[in-house]
Amino acid sequence: RRQRQMCIRDSQGAKRSVLFYSLACSCKLNNINTFEYFKDILDRLAKLPDPGMHPEILRELLPDKWFKKEL
């Protein structure tokens, strides 16, 4: 418990933590390598001019819709 408190200092940090934990659990349920998933979606999000303006793209990045694009 002490280690968790060191990482999560406020309610915003707790919300972010829950978000990442939820995505990781969804990856596990969908038999997706969590590391590859996070690496891929972070790369894709970095290339978007404004991620908030593209809800349909964000939906496609959720684990149940995601597929790794081969370059």
Describe this structure as you would to a colleague:
This protein has 71 residues and is mainly α. The protein has 4 helices and no strands. The protein has helices at residues 2-7, 11-29, 34-47, 55-60. The longest helix is centred in the N-terminal third of the chain and has 19 residues, at 11-29. It is globular and about 35 Å long. The mean pLDDT is 83.
> What letter string, H or E per element, gives the SSE order?
HHHH
Q: Low-confidence runs (pLDDT<50, min 5 residues)?
A: none
Strand content: under 5%
Describe the biggest sheet? Answer: none
Helix and strand composition category? mainly alpha
Cα(first) to Cα(last) distance is: 42 Å
Tally the helices.
4
User: Quick one: overall form?
Assistant: globular
Provide the helix percentage. Answer: 55-70%
The total beta strand count reads 0
What's the average pLDDT?
Answer: 83
Radius of gyration: 14 Å
Detail the topology: elements first, then pairings:
Elements: H1 2-7, H2 11-29, H3 34-47, H4 55-60
